[in-house]
UniProtKB/TrEMBL annotation:
<keyword id="KW-0560">Oxidoreductase</keyword>
<dbReference type="InterPro" id="IPR023753">
    <property type="entry name" value="FAD/NAD-binding_dom"/>
</dbReference>
<dbReference type="InterPro" id="IPR004099">
    <property type="entry name" value="Pyr_nucl-diS_OxRdtase_dimer"/>
</dbReference>
<dbReference type="InterPro" id="IPR036188">
    <property type="entry name" value="FAD/NAD-bd_sf"/>
</dbReference>
<comment type="similarity">
    <text>Belongs to the class-I pyridine nucleotide-disulfide oxidoreductase family.</text>
</comment>
<dbReference type="GO" id="GO:0016491">
    <property type="term" value="F:oxidoreductase activity"/>
</dbReference>
<feature type="domain" description="Pyridine nucleotide-disulphide oxidoreductase dimerisation">
    <location>
        <begin position="325"/>
        <end position="438"/>
    </location>
</feature>
<protein>
    <submittedName>
        <fullName>Dihydrolipoyl dehydrogenase family protein</fullName>
        <ecNumber>1.-.-.-</ecNumber>
    </submittedName>
</protein>
<keyword id="KW-0285">Flavoprotein</keyword>
<dbReference type="Pfam" id="PF07992">
    <property type="entry name" value="Pyr_redox_2"/>
</dbReference>
<feature type="domain" description="FAD/NAD(P)-binding">
    <location>
        <begin position="3"/>
        <end position="305"/>
    </location>
</feature>
<dbReference type="Pfam" id="PF02852">
    <property type="entry name" value="Pyr_redox_dim"/>
</dbReference>
<dbReference type="InterPro" id="IPR001100">
    <property type="entry name" value="Pyr_nuc-diS_OxRdtase"/>
</dbReference>
<dbReference type="InterPro" id="IPR016156">
    <property type="entry name" value="FAD/NAD-linked_Rdtase_dimer_sf"/>
</dbReference>
<keyword id="KW-0274">FAD</keyword>
Length: 463
C-alpha cells in the first residue's frame, strides 16, 4: 500500500479528514482536483458572506467584487498546499477514480498517465455541484450559478433568481442592495421552506420592503433567452431579467468516480450512503461532507471529516454523527436554527417559549427589532419537564442570530436542563440575554410571556 489513508477532495470535509488521519499518525495523501478550501472558500461561504457584508456597507458593484476576491485570497492562503504540507499531509492535484475497493487511478493536472495509488483507508469528500433542474430551455440560455456568479465584473441591471433556499435568499438580498433589480421565484409556498413559518414570512416582508420581487408557490417551468436577457415562465407569470441565477440546490459530486468499482452504494439523489460512523457500503471506504447528502454546511462537512478519519483509524469506540448541527442563513435579519422547528413537533408535552426582538432591550437600542427567539423544549424520560425539560430546537431571527444560536446548540449538545439557560447570568444589554429571557418563560411568566404548548402542524406554527 502506498499510504495509510487517501482522502479525495480538498474542501472542508477533505481537509478535516486529512488532518484527522495525519494527527492519528497515518501517512496521508490528499488528492484534489481543485485548490484546497473547496466550495466554501472559493464559490460558497467566503465569497457570499463577503458580498453580503460589502452590499450592507453600501459599496458599489466593482468594489464589492474586488473585496470578494481579496477575502477569498486571504482565506485561501491559510489552507493552501504549502500550509498543508507543513502539517505533514502529502498533496496530489488531480482527479481520482476507483479501480478497486482501495485502489485509485489519479489523472494529474499535467495530463500525465493515470497514477495508481492504494491505501487500506479511503475517505471520499468530493463535495457537490450546483444542480440545474430539468427545465425546458434552461441549458440553452447563459445562466449563472454559484460557480460563476462571483466572477461577475460588470454591474447588472436585473437578476432573476430561481430558488428561494439559502443561496437564493442570501444572494437576492445582496444583489438587491448592490442596486440590481431582483426577482426571486420559489416553488414552495414560502422562502427557506424548511424553517419556522414565521421566520419565512418575516423574511418575505423584509425582501418586499427592500424592493425584491418575491413570488412563492410558483415553479419555473420553462426558460428562454439569449446573451441580452432571459424570460422565465412560472405559473401565470413571465419574468424577464438581464441574467438568471440558478439556485435550485446542489447534487453530490460523484460523476467519474466509478463508485461501483469499489462497491460503494449511492442513494436516490446520487449521494454516497453512509452509516453513523461515515462508513460506506465498501469496507475501508468512508465518505464525508456534501457528497453524503447530509447537512450541506461547512461546519457539518468538517465534523463529518473528523468522524470519518476517527472511524477509519479506530476499531473500537468509533466516533459517530449525532451532534445537533446549527445553521445560519446570512440574510438581514439573520435566520439561525438548530434542532427542530415548531412545525416539526410530533410529540406531546412539548412547549414553546417565544420572545419578539421588540421586547429585547439591545434590539430596541439598535433600532433592529425585527425578529424573535423561539425555544422548543420537551420532557425528559422519567423527569418530564422538570428543570425546563430538554431543548429540542431553537430558531433565532435577528441582527446577531448567528451568534445567539451557539448557546442553544451547546444546551442541546450537552443535554443540559433548559433551565440552565435561564439560570446563567447574561450581561445586560446584550443580544444573547434574549436567550435567557426566553428560557425563563419555561418557569412561569417573564415579561408578560409564558411558554405555551407547541402547535402541531395542522394548527400552524405561529406564535
Ligand atoms: C453560495 C454558497 C454559500 C454557502 N454558504 C455557507 C455558509 O455560510 N455556511 C456554511 O456552513 N455552508 C455554506 N455553504 C455550503 C458549504 O460551502 C458546503 O457545505 C461545504 O463547502 C462542503 O464541503 P465539502 O468538503 O463537502 O465539499 P467541497 O468544498 O465541494 O470540496 C470537494 C472537493 O473535492 C474535489 N473533487 C471533486 N471530485 C474529485 C475527484 N474525482 N478527484 C479529486 N478531487 C475531487 C473538488 O475539486 C473540491 O475541491 C455555502 C454553499 C454555497 C454554494
Ligand atoms: N448560510 C448557509 O449556511 C448556506 C448558504 C448557502 C448555501 N448553503 C447550503 O447550500 C445548499 C444549496 O443551497 P440552495 O439554496 O441552492 O438549495 P436549497 O435546496 O436549499 O434551495 C433550493 C430551492 O430551489 C427551489 N426550486 C427548485 N426548483 C425550482 C423551480 N423549478 N422553480 C422554482 N423554485 C425551485 C426549491 O423549492 C428550494 O427551495 C443548501 O443545502 C445549504 O445548506 C448554506
Amino acid at each position: 500500500m502506498d499510504y495509510d489513508a487517501i482522502v479525495l477532495g480538498g474542501g472542508a470535509a477533505g481537509l478535516a479528514a486529512a488532518r484527522g488521519a495525519t494527527a492519528a499518525g497515518m501517512r496521508t495523501l490528499l488528492v484534489t482536483d481543485g485548490p484546497p478550501g473547496g466550495d466554501c472558500t472559493f464559490t460558497g461561504c467566503v465569497p457570499s458572506k463577503t458580498l453580503i457584508e460589502a452590499a450592507a456597507d453600501g459599496l458599489p458593484f466593482d468594489k464589492a467584487m474586488a473585496r470578494v476576491r481579496e477575502a477569498v485570497a486571504a482565506i485561501a492562503a491559510t489552507e493552501d498546499e504549502n500550509v498543508l504540507r507543513s502539517e505533514g499531509i502529502d498533496i496530489l492535484r488531480g482527479r481520482a477514480r476507483f479501480i478497486g475497493r482501495t485502489t485509485l487511478d489519479v489523472d494529474t493536472a499535467e495530463g500525465a498517465d493515470g497514477q495508481r495509488l492504494s491505501a487500506p483507508r479511503v475517505i471520499v469528500a468530493t463535495g457537490a455541484t450546483p444542480l440545474l433542474p430539468p427545465i425546458p430551455g434552461l441549458t440553452d440560455v447563459p445562466t449563472l450559478t454559484t460557480d460563476t456568479v462571483f466572477d461577475l465584473t460588470e454591474p447588472l441591471d436585473s437578476l432573476a433568481v430561481l430558488g428561494g433556499g439559502a443561496v437564493g435568499s442570501e444572494l437576492a438580498q445582496a444583489f438587491a442592495r448592490l442596486g440590481v433589480r431582483v426577482t426571486l421565484i420559489e416553488a414552495a409556498d414560502r422562502l427557506l421552506p424548511g424553517i419556522d413559518r414565521e421566520a419565512s414570512a418575516l423574511l418575505t416582508d423584509v425582501f418586499r420592503a427592500e424592493g425584491i420581487d418575491v413570488t412563492t408557490g410558483a415553479t419555473v417551468e420553462s426558460v428562454r433567452g439569449d446573451d441580452s436577457g432571459v424570460a422565465l415562465r412560472a405559473g401565470e407569470r413571465t419574468v424577464t431579467a438581464q441574467r438568471l441565477l440558478v439556485a435550485a440546490g446542489r447534487q453530490p459530486a460523484t460523476a467519474g468516480l466509478d463508485l461501483a468499482a469499489a462497491g460503494i452504494a449511492t442513494g436516490e439523489r446520487g449521494e454516497i450512503r453512509t452509516d453513523d460512523h461515515m462508513a460506506t457500503t465498501a469496507p475501508g471506504v468512508f465518505a464525508a461532507g456534501d457528497v453524503t447528502g447530509r447537512a450541506e454546511l461547512t461546519h457539518a462537512a468538517y465534523a463529518m471529516g473528523r468522524i470519518a478519519a476517527g472511524a477509519a483509524v479506530r476499531r473500537w469506540r468509533r466516533p459517530s454523527w449525532d451532534a445537533p448541527i446549527p445553521s445560519v442563513v446570512f440574510t438581514d435579519p439573520e435566520i439561525a436554527t438548530v434542532g427542530i422547528a415548531e412545525h416539526e413537533v410530533t410529540a406531546a408535552r412539548v412547549r414553546v417559549a417565544y420572545l419578539p426582538m421588540s421586547e429585547v432591550d439591545r434590539a430596541v437600542t439598535a433600532n433592529a427589532t425585527s425578529g424573535f427567539v423561539k425555544l422548543i423544549a420537551g420532557p425528559r424520560r422519567l423527569l418530564g419537564n422538570t428543570g425546563g425539560g430538554r431543548l429540542l430546537g431553537a430558531t433565532v431571527v435577528g441582527e446577531r442570530a448567528g451568534e445567539l444560536i451557539a448557546e442553544p446548540t451547546l444546551a442541546m449538545t450537552s443535554g443540559m436542563f433548559t433551565g440552565r439557560l435561564a439560570q446563567a447570568v447574561h450581561a445586560y444589554p446584550t443580544w444573547s440575554i434574549a436567550v435567557q429571557q426566553a428560557a425563563a418563560q419555561f418557569f412561569g411568566e417573564f415579561g408578560g410571556r409564558t411558554a405555551r404548548p407547541a402547535r402541531m402542524p395542522e394548527a400552524g406554527g405561529q406564535h
